[in-house]
Batch of 3 targets.
Target 1
Amino acid sequence: MKKNYYCLDMFPYPSGNGLHVGHWRGYVLSDVWSRYQMLHGYNILHPMGWDAFGLPAENYAIAQKKHPAISTAHNIENFKRQLKEINAVYDWDKEINTTDPKYYKWTQWIFLKMFEHGLAYEKEMPINWCPSCKTGLANEEVKDGQCDRCGTVATKKNVRQWMLKITEYAQRLLDDLSGLDWPEKVKKMQSDWIGKSFGAEIDFEVEGTDKKIKVFTTRPDTLYGSTFMVLAPEHELVSELATKEQLPEVEKYVFDASTKSAVNRMTEKDKTGVFLGSYAINPLNNEKLPIWISDYVLSDYGTGAIMCVPAHDERDFAFAKKFNLPIVPVISKDGNVVELEEAFTEEGIMVNSQSFNGMKSAEAKLKIPDYLEEHGIGKKTVNYKLRDWVFSRQRYWGEPIPIIHCSKCGIVGVPEEELPVELPDVTSYEPTGTGESPLAAIDEWVNTTCPKCGGPAKRETNTMPQWAGSSWYFLRYPNPNNDKELISKEDMKKWLPVDMYVGGIEHAVLHLLYARFYTKFLYDIGVVDFVEPFTRLFNQGMVTKNGAKMSKSKGNVVSPDELVKKYGCDALRIYELFIGPPELDSEWDDRGIEGVHRFLNKFKRLFENTNQKAQTKEVEKLCHKMIYDITTRMESFSLNTVVSGFMEYTNKLLDIQKSIGSIDKTTLKTLTILLAPLAPDTAKDIWVNLGQTSDIFEQEWPKYDLEKMKDDTAEIVVQISGKVSGKININLDEDEKSILDKAKKAIENKLLGKKILKEIYVKGRIVNIVAK
């Protein structure tokens, strides 16, 4: 019985610009790999679909002044035409579309299950906001302080949001990275994003109140050196702790901070801040600490409050210097207290720390949290940089969130039998910018009845982000028409998890992290029996033109359409492979495909004169060497060197063909099978011309024989007393006397007048004539 193999591309968002040659690269890589596995006896699942909901599709529709359903359908039609030109073995019967109600029924079902298990919750909070797209953004969608879709600087806005508690899975997401056959770079990116750190949580009392400020620190050894506190401008206690005199300045600062992106706030060198007028108490030495707000502290990391130790933190040092705040060193290099010109951030000896003086700071890191726990003023804790996922969007083009709001029953999930909650057809779908989705204006859709009490209720009007449909789509391909369950146990066991996943590294902390989270949740509720979705991951590099990523705005996009017409699909496929190591960015050269086209024509010349003659020993050896080289390069995914190997061996075989008239049919059949994954059309035509009636992809990948690869002859060095004096060609089975005689003959002029003392032959490697 054949084994099964699931090779998957990251499915595309069908943009209006269509595919360019950079997109082709990943699709060609995965198709070559799929066809290679077919020739190793695997049943292949290699499907394709459309990630068609979300901001990109909606923004394009707005720009085109078309309804997103119409523009998306048109774009999919164009993409599908282009993808078929790649001649990939996509199973179009398995095609999925995230905007199809039969598909997003199950996207909504997963959300309902998360809601039932307490992982989906509603909260009003300051979130990343794109003023241009007029919607909330997840942290992962903000790059360098900008919306990753339109490039507008992201700000902060208080909005009612649906959140997914991905933080519940932080440790598992971290632990399971080690078992994945993924690029180390991607694993590190995810590990860094999850951001596990050990430290202590400490309660600071606020002078004259019953309030406490909770702080997380990874440096409890520096607590004695804390001389002030800083809260994030969004911290819930800011308005309460601001004194009457300070309140106007505080309110202005809070507003100004809301217009800045998180990245800009973290990277601005000039520190700003405002004193609240209140003081906290250092729990270890009872010193009064002035409480400030500053935008370099973020509300969504740790507790949104930090104890500031300017002697041992560069940002705190800069802040203290600017606002003339005390700097008290509590760690020194040698135990002596000195005035600091800059923050001392190394390990050292504790000073100014009461009973901990003289202790190594590394030891104090462990001892002080114990002390805090014993005295009830703090506890040892683990913190993660990962935040809960901002899941709702204030836009039209997305999956409706299957929630009903009832004044009597509260938040109620839509009954499963009523799924899908379909997106209503509307004439006006542009974002409102008010924090409400355009759906909120459709009374006949919004107003409904509560499934619990039957009373009047309203539908949730926010929609899901574009990541919702892509976080589980790989589960749907095996049986996209199953209307009874997300995936059957039979299909799951037959195909999943995905064996090989191919796509860009730009999805390292977005799609790939979300898909891992969804899979672990579905495992927990018994839908799947595995905890990781993608066994092996390959990230292809970009194809650049004129040193830049291809984009319409840069005017450097190369469309595959005309190239396919001029050179054929196979030439473009092979050039996509040949352009450079597949994992690295490569520069497009318009002339490069010409060379590949010439290579294919040269390869075909090997088949112009075929006969039934026996395989010569020379051809047999070359054939086995070629099988070995192509196979080992394929297995290491070095597909550019697979192509260069073909070019090299084709030239050698053409030279042999010139001398003997033709290459035997056995060798030609082997060459055709080896070429088939790279150039399927060319290989199929040649296969038929060789008189074969079976499908070439039903053949077995050729096997090499190491014995038949061995050379019969070798060139070896001849030395006189250890110094190279010449070279000779020998037969490897030649006897030692004959080889020594041949060596002496080759260097006889150099032996004149010398007495031979000793003759040494190291088999197959060297002859050394010791002479004086």
Target 2
Amino acid sequence: MKSILQSKRLYLDGAMGSQLQEKLSSIGLIPEELNLTNPQVIREIHQAYRDAGANILLSSTFGANRYKLKNSAYSVSQIVTAAVENVRAAEPDYVGLDIGPIGALIGSLGDIEFEEAVSIFKEVIEAGQAAGVDLIVIETITDICEARAAVIAAKEVSDLPIIVSMTYEENGRTLTGSDPLSVVNILQGMGVDVIGINCSTGPQGMIPIIKELLEYASVPIMVEPNAGLPKMIGDKTQYDISADQFSAFMKEIAKMGATHLGGCCGTTPEHISKMIAATKEIKLAEKKTQGFTAASSATKTEFLGDDVLVIGESINPTTNDLLKDSLKQGRLNIVSELALSQKKDGAKILDINLGLPGIDEKDLMIKAVDAVSKLVDLPLQIDSSNPEVIAAVLRSYPGRAIINSVNGKKSSLDAILPIAKKYGALVLGLTMDESGIPDSVEKRLEIAERIIASGKDFGLSTSDFLMDCLVLTASAQQKEVKETLKAVSAIRDRYDIPTVLGVSNISFGLPNRELLNRTFLSMALNHGLTNPIMNPGDQEMMDTISAFRALWGYDGQCIEYANAYKEVKETVLKISTEKVSLKLLIEEGQSDKAKELTEKLLETKEAMEIVNQEIIPGLDAVGDAFETGEVFLPHLMFAAETAQKAFEAIKEKMEREGIVQVSKGKIILATVEGDVHDIGKNILKVILENYGYTVLDLGKDVGAETILETILAENVTLIGLSALMTTTVRSMKSIIEYLREKTSNLSIMVGGAVLTPEYAMEIGADFYGKDAREGVSIARKVFE
């Protein structure tokens, strides 16, 4: 099956939910139960897609996980088994196990721990494998962390082919901010067989993202667009792209190079049939090799080897007593400060080393990586001599990190390389083995060759490696300095991979270390060093790199150099007097400091003064950056978390003094009847509460009467309704109509993936909230 996915165009089916909505007056709260309660209608839809020509039919198991089925009378295994039987009845070429998102944010963004997410996915996959599916299709994923959890689950319990398909917003990124390049780099590194894009928009809106996926991916690309945008016509939801229009777009997408094609929301057997007819004669694009080395965070990717990028070395307790003391106390405040300062100073990747006797390295490293990932968008290098620590950190890290390090010893290769393969990490190789660091260039090259060859045995490629030829202090190994530089040149010439050196090692034990460091840095850059590990706060070292990039042609037209130094005299004379403010902490998401600073501010300022001059401006600054695409949903959430810490201090003082808090207004939030998806609603709740609004969260699957009772009891004038599925927008419309009959002076905002501004107006809403930031703007319009 894996080879077929690589060599043949396959056609997937189209929408299941909208087809069920056409056939049934109600599909119920959990549509997957229809596999058992009304299997005939499910089989009819599968057969229609099979007759249309689809050769991969997906089981109707999109939401069949224990989180969404907690109120179901049926188990995951029962539903998955029945669903696969229903697909098999149509006798497709291949049965795909359809797996959608869990339905909640995971990790530091949400309420479900990463390992719980892995366990949830495993249960579905084990049931699918037992039922005899041919491949796993993980689709409509909005969070790369959740995608990684699903892939890890699949690989730990199955050897079936894996397709992972993400959903993107209008800004070209996923809900949590991942761009297509980062998605490709992360998932391809983990060994998925096909990378896809589905849902999101109609086919035309997907084209820029598809181009980027095709530019970087060496695995096939799958495309499953919606049939355009939904519209409410009478009591029915209809999509605005016909089967003929859809097939014309898909023909162009196939010509671009997409391999596997299908449909998502609103597509019908007719859409699939005409798509197949329009694309079946188009030849597959030639298979590409990856051809690049890159490290990624969840939201940012850095290419390595084609420019000089600094790896920040400062998060290392060996030479930092403040860091050492904080780690012994189990605190990560210094780690956070060092991460922020190194990014500001120009580091592009951060090395994290917490090797210190007497601490729980694994526990602290996991927490440190999580803390740093919240604060900065830089990719990370995981620096530990303990393979268990490396594996534990990489398992939940939502990016593609670098392992620091592996060496030529067989024990090191056997311990580290399988971890890199499993979790999709890059590997920093050290040219040393059981005999130590070789004196000669030739022996260092032999070790590099051994490391790369061993990597291939474990399924890694040359482009998965960086190489450190190792430099020690010139005071003890003066002759070897030249050999190290020659080895750097030789590695670049032979393998064309990124090269790394811990630059400051050269001067250990010698006076005027700064002079030696920057002189050696210049020599190393000239010999092909691409990624110096150094302190980016050393301005003269950074100046050396800036000048080298300008002279070597990395900085086209010397523009970056000119911009950096055109006012150099003013820059040198300027002394920063900026002090840490609560507003700045909120903007940076430093939640660990917010409460303490707020308590100090309360000694001299009134609570509302702090709210209006620090907290709200901080939230607004992050909100503005979110609107312009400078930051993404995680940053918005972490800013809200930081503001929440500040509010805790304010509330505690007000309670001590007997002061009653004044709300800016009451707002009801609810996911409408028939819908169990509440991620967007929950995000909006957090943001609104931090702006001072009282939120009455009625939960999910909420009917009109419950909402009305709360409106009347609490005297509410603004409500927010959420729906994710096309099948529940009808419920949203009926709820709005009911509330309009029973109330006056009520403002209604709606949101959800299937809604558009036009659609919102068609169903009678006053406002369309595309995201949490817009929800705050709506609340301000209504109350302020």
Target 3
Amino acid sequence: MKISYNWLQDFIAIEEPPEMLGEVLTQTGLEVEGIETVEKVKGGLQGLVVGEVISCEKHPDADKLNLTTVDIGQDKLLSIVCGAPNVAASQKVVVAPINTTIFPTNGEPFKIKKAKIRGQISEGMICAEDEIGLGSKHDGIIVLDTKVNNGTPASELFNIGKDSIFEIGLTPNRGDATSHWGTARDLRAYFKREISLPKINLPQRKTDRPVKVIVEDDKGCIRYSGMTIRDIKVGPSPDWLQWKLRAIGQEPINNIVDITNYVLHSLGQPLHAFDADKIRGQKVIVKTLPEGTKFTTLDEKERKLSANDLMICDDQGGMCIAGVFGGIHSGVKDSTTSIFLESACFSPDYIRASAQRHGLSTDASFRFERSTDPEDTIFALEYAAQLILDLAGGFMASDTIDIYPKPVEPVSIPTSTSVFRRLIGEEIPTHQIHEILNLLDIQTSEKGESFSAIVPPYRSEVTREADLVEEVLRIYGFNKIPLEDTFSSDYLAEFQEKEPYKLQEELSTFLAGNGFNEILTNSLTNKIYQEELKLSAETSVEMLNHSSEELSVLKASPLYTGLEVIRHNLNRRQENLRLFEFNKSYYVNVDYHEDEWLSLYLTGHTHETSWMSEAGEFTFHHLMQYLEGILDWSGISEVTTIPSQQSSTFQYALDLSLNNVSLGSIGKLKHEMLSYYDINQDVFYLQLDWKKLQRYTRKSFDFRPISKYPEVRRDLSLILNKAITFDSIQKIAFNSEKKLLNRVNVFSIYEGQSIGEGKKAYAISFYLRDQTKTLTDKQIDKVMNHLMQLFERELGAIIRK
């Protein structure tokens, strides 16, 4: 948002230079991101001086050129070749001496150099108004009617204008400060100076075909004010108004539109002027239109309306998307002679939704989205009407229309100075708290320690005691609060026990230490992936204004972009890959949904072949080992696995769960899917629900001394049905012997005719240890006999002895 230093002085007296004022604005919560100096005339006529033409003769070799000598207050007269038809001796003129840079109205700036024109030396230039940015005329040089001394800077003769513009990074909660008046209110509180609004003195009204107003949707339209003005003349705005607008980056259009923009930036109240003769039925109706209704806006784009778009309509259809953008047929044109002037307060929720839905951001929507003052519509309307009558003529053809069915009441917030002391950590005098709040238009019911703060409607973001504390503190000065070693205050927010970004950083470090590289992929992808591969059963989220078909939807599965990365690397002979990514997937199921994932990819060989060892290919068990490492890092120990049914994604896989809550999947990706991406080697994939992993992570560890008693190993060979997994054996063992059994390991698996069809044999090592004493053979045999009985009874195992 741009705020003009000169414009502010229409509302409050300012003595401070722009740099100091910028620091004050930043302290009060209006962060100044930069200060820019703008000039009404580019270059500010720097270097240009007043000169007097001493002599003027025809150029001997050019009919249209003249040889002049010019006095610019120096010891030596300048010889200047001039082609202007009106140049003559004794004239006072504007001269650009050698090395002066001039800024023409049209074209790029350039530096004056000593030149030879048709054989004659020229030591400068006598200027026309378009050559130095003072206008558009080029029919002759500027002839001055002045008696100032030769050599006087030209800038002293012209009202060239100069201003300092503050670029303010306005936060969404400061709807009260979206104008020069709103900014002046903060300065009033800080400097304790008077502020003033312009005086309004409207002439008598003459009723002539007044436009009627009907508000059908009073939820979206909180207040609607309007007025009909006739017999106006649309034309260019006066110089002062054009300069005000140009200084803040607004291009003047015509006097009517410029006035509405001027009032918007002055007071923060958006206005809209309709061509009254184009309002069919002479009725303005505030309502919504049916879903899919077509409407052409000022930018000549046809848009399909939502049933939730608030519209300004006439008898036959829409004229304007309320608070956002006007229609192509109802705006003010050069031929307009009558207008209906609108000043309204619309619901921020309605305007924000419509602006986002149609991809529009205007000065009006910027303010309505942040909430405007419902009490300001009449003043802004009448101020604009007064300016229109002054600058465009005409007469008021109606009374001021004002529809305000449910007035917005001030908010009362009970509080006490002890709350300010508790949250700030320092005591601010009671009288100063009351004074600051009153200067911010927040009245206080009592002047003691306990009081109620009465917040005006235009401060809609101030709703609780903490907001009142912030208001006082930003005017009192954050920098006045000493930050001592013993400083303390209460926190308003609760802090998360587990910080997601910290956990993500720690886990990334862990994976990088295990040889993984992190990848970052685009959330946007090609919609053809979901259409042809269907890795997600949900509906993709399509972009309304996508830049290309290749980036037209939000990815429904991390695999869509992860496999692109693998293909990219394989095409560049990077074949041995360990990759991980923290990513998101998106889908629509009634509402929009967003899931967060941790994805791991393994493909190729475990390491490069060397003279020391052959390179082995990655397998499912390598990825399982990394999963166990992640779970161990997270402090999660009781994950259960079942065969996965995700046939569209995996050739084989396991689904992971914890406490009956799905945690993710791990497996080997299907060859058909890999072929789709031109990947000709196996890829193993782990997908973990990152939010759930965070929830169950327990980053605490128990440390115990290494046992001084020996570990004992006993081996068993079990013949089992082929369907029984090692996981089943392990669970039975640990559930049975929780005290002495430390770990279980498979060191051989056999399948063959010698043990029977549908059977397999596991050779398993059981490791036992007592932390308090050396185990005896009797204790060991007891544990092993009990385990063998359990395996025989529960798994139907045959123990090979």
